[in-house]
Amino acid sequence: MAENICISLAVQRVSSSVPPRGQLCKLFSPGEIIFPQSDFMRGHGTYPEDDVLKASVAGVMEQIGRLISIKPLKSRYNGEVGDVVVGRILEVTQKRWKVDTNSRLDSILLLSSVNLPGGELRRRSAEDEQMMRKYLIEGDLISAEVQSIYADGSLSLHTRSFTYGKLSQGILIKVCPALIKRSKTHFHNLPCGASIILGKNGFVWISPTTADSNSSGGFAQNLDQKVGKADREVIARLRNCVLALATNKIPLYSTSILHAFEESEKYLVSELLNPESMLDIAILTQHKIQMTEDL
Amino acid sequence: MDLVSDQGLRIDGRRPKELRKIRCKLGVFAQPEGSAYLEQGNTKVLAAVYGPHQVRNRSKALHDAAVVNCQYSMATFSTFERKRRPRGDIKSTEMTLHLKQAMQASIKTELYPYSQIDIYLEVLQADGGNYCACVNAATLALVDAGIPLKEYVIGCTASLGNGDVPLIDVSHLEETMGGSNLTVAVLPLSGQIAVLEMSQKFHVDHLSLVLNEALDGCRRIYEILNDTVKNHLSEIGAISGWGKSDL
């Protein structure tokens, strides 16, 4: 048992201290008065009381015209139409699946908003309803897009594209939804040899890159396919890099993840779980991002 | 033995109007949406907030508000004598109800229909003012979770020493040796009282004296907690670029 065990005292704990960037913003905390007069429109995170506008969450102010809102730095996922999400099936009911998307209510995937095998414009019959468990059962992971938001705030998802569907082999990481940056695409085939889906809801899916991932889609799940050791190592390294960035509150997008991956090469995959090396990678990544931004 | 000496000092060396040292930290856990750790002197409390999420028990769901679910528990090693049950005894159940009342006064539950917010509190070390420390820690955890609040809820205790000297933020020794204790949970900015509890009767002349002392303590604790929240926010906000979504 010549394992390298590292036990550190509480006083030696690594405190996340990535150097900040950007200027200071004015911060608001719950109950604080934003504007004494209320000729502004109140947005999320605010409430009116006695003719003044007050903050209800702790965060920074965002002003769009006359609309004032306070954005908390950390919260549950607030869905928006068009977001790419990764979710887990919780329940199979009549004509719909209940999906956990880290939202404040369970999301819904209707049988009519999935692509069933064989024909796009096929009528959903009673047999299809009985077959629902064949496509997706409790515990399955899916990637989907937010189609609409119901009146009570729950999300309706759809998988009407070959990019979405059931996920087969890979790793799921749950991070804070605010860390996922919105970008043109949330599906990335990284040059290091793995694919990553950055769900806007804070669920990140890392899987080996398959040659014909476009044609499968839907409900194909190839669990017999062997993933080589090299691929698995890349996936594990990516996972640890994403965790390192997330614990140090650095936004996640393809560039930051790639930078972190490059910086992590000097460590073994297992060493990446030490708080020291996590902080080191975060600082180096931050530095690299800043360098490219300044250019 | 007097609770306040001739020099005007209390048993632990504080002045009558002096709070115990408060140390707190936000975001101590990764799994829950919000979490906080708070020390008030030797009273140490951990708080974790989960949610808002779908109500697991369908029949309890409300169509116009979120359900607030609290759980107060004391670690078996938290008191001088080892505790048999960490939760579920009458005292803990009562605490849970009072905590729920204080938190519901502040959380804007009407924004989250059919949802549930879970608040878990664990007392690691009990040295008087457990309820106050729990209220303060829960407030910090709720702020960390980004749940909309009307304002902070702050708890503070006060008591009387030597017959007529009001004492603030009483410790366990003073709680047991002294007379009656007053516990309040208030919304400090508007001055509304969410919970008020007395362990025994107060003389009517003393009540306003002690109550004002406790309210003043709440305002001072509010300042301390607010500073902590702002520091925490500026620390994590500066790294992540203030959560701005534009690339």
Automatic annotation (TrEMBL), chain A:
UniProt keyword RNA-binding, yes or no: yes
Domain of life where this protein originates: Eukaryota
UniProt entry tagged with the keyword 4Fe-4S: no
Gene Ontology molecular function terms on file: RNA binding
Keywords for this protein: Exosome, Nucleus, RNA-binding, rRNA processing
GO CC term (a single one): cytoplasmic exosome (RNase complex)
Subcellular localization, as worded in the UniProt entry: Nucleus
Residue ranges constituting the RRP4 S1 domain according to the UniProt record: 76-148
One example of a Gene Ontology biological process annotation: regulation of gene expression
Residue ranges annotated for the K Homology domain, each copy included: 170-211
Domain Exosome complex component N-terminal per the UniProt entry, residue ranges: 29-62
InterPro entries associated with the record: Exosome_cplx_N_dom, Exosome_RNA_bind1/RRP40/RRP4, KH_dom_type_1, KH_dom_type_1_sf, NA-bd_OB-fold, S1_RRP4
Family to which this protein belongs: Belongs to the RRP4 family.
Protein name per UniProt: Ribosomal RNA-processing protein 4
The species this protein was found in: Parthenolecanium corni
UniProtKB/TrEMBL annotation, chain B:
Exoribonuclease phosphorolytic domain boundaries: 18-148, 152-215
Example of a GO biological process term: poly(A)-dependent snoRNA 3'-end processing
Alphabetical list of Pfam families matching this protein: RNase_PH (PF01138), RNase_PH_C (PF03725)
Keywords: Cytoplasm, Exosome
GO CC list: cytoplasmic exosome (RNase complex); nuclear exosome (RNase complex); nucleolus
SUPFAM superfamilies with a match to the protein in the record: Ribonuclease PH domain 2-like, Ribosomal protein S5 domain 2-like
Alphabetized InterPro entries for the sequence: ExoRNase_PH_dom1, ExoRNase_PH_dom2, ExoRNase_PH_dom2_sf, PNPase/RNase_PH_dom_sf, Ribosomal_Su5_D2-typ_SF, RNase_PH
UniProt GO MF annotations: RNA binding
Family of this protein: Belongs to the RNase PH family.
Quaternary data: Component of the RNA exosome complex.
Name recorded for this polypeptide: Putative exosome complex component RRP41
